[in-house]
Amino acid sequence: MLKLVLPKGSLEKATLELFEAADLAVNRSSSVDYRATVDDPRIIDVRILRPQEIPLYVAEGLFDLGITGRDWVEETGADVVSLGELKYSKATSNPVRIVVAVQQDSPATSVNDLAHGLRVSTEYPNLTRRFFADRGIDADIRLSYGATEAKIPDIVDCVVDITETGRALRAAGLKIIDTIVTSYTELVANPAAAADPAKAHAMAQLRTLLMGSLDARGRVLLKLNVPKDRLDAVIAEMPAAKSPTVNELYGDSGYAVESVVPKAGINTLIPRLLELGASDILEMPILKIIP
User: Fold this and answer.
1) Rounded mean pLDDT, 215-221
2) Domains along the chain?
């Protein structure tokens, strides 16, 4: 039913891991194969291509559904339907940013301080051209094929580059003076496919699986028993995503409590719960959280 295109390159590993966690494992003959399959009746074809190309291919109807960055949707101006952000990037769950950066010792503190005629190197020429034009700045936009940050100050005056943490830019002696786009990974659909009831239904189901896997990251299921007189104290200590589930134990001997809690801090939470009277504590991994 659905033709799916996934990103190759920096987002590839994180995307394949997400699909694996969502029980949508992507199978291919080798790590360099551009064709793949997913053992799911809703997906009939899978390609793995550069994220720069994905928005246009989806807009043209070559694929029904794709994963790419918001930065490339903005750069290409592709007519696609967003089915929502998938909050992961190459190394973290944080977005990436398309930023304007100049030499560290430059007096400029914002893009408005830059002079007309400045030379700008970027892998995002369309986005960059629109950004400077909207601010009335005449800029010489030069397409970069990589190592963009290395071109200041000898080749260009500033760069428009992608960053997740800013470390690479700082290491190159640059400082960020403006942000053009904050970009999460995004699930995008062809407009005609999204308007087709059967395809839209399949897309929604796939999105539910992917979002459920993302929501489960960094959380665990905590199960424990607690005497009646200690229930309120234990519940007050548990950082539940929602109200904990509480069931009375057989023989009126107390309560069984379970709750989804953040993995971070579990090392101090469990000893604290024991001190408050909890027992038989189980910490269990979670694969998906479906609202």
Assistant:
1) 93
2) 2-93+184-216 (3.40.190.10), 96-182 (3.40.190.10), 219-285 (3.30.70.120)
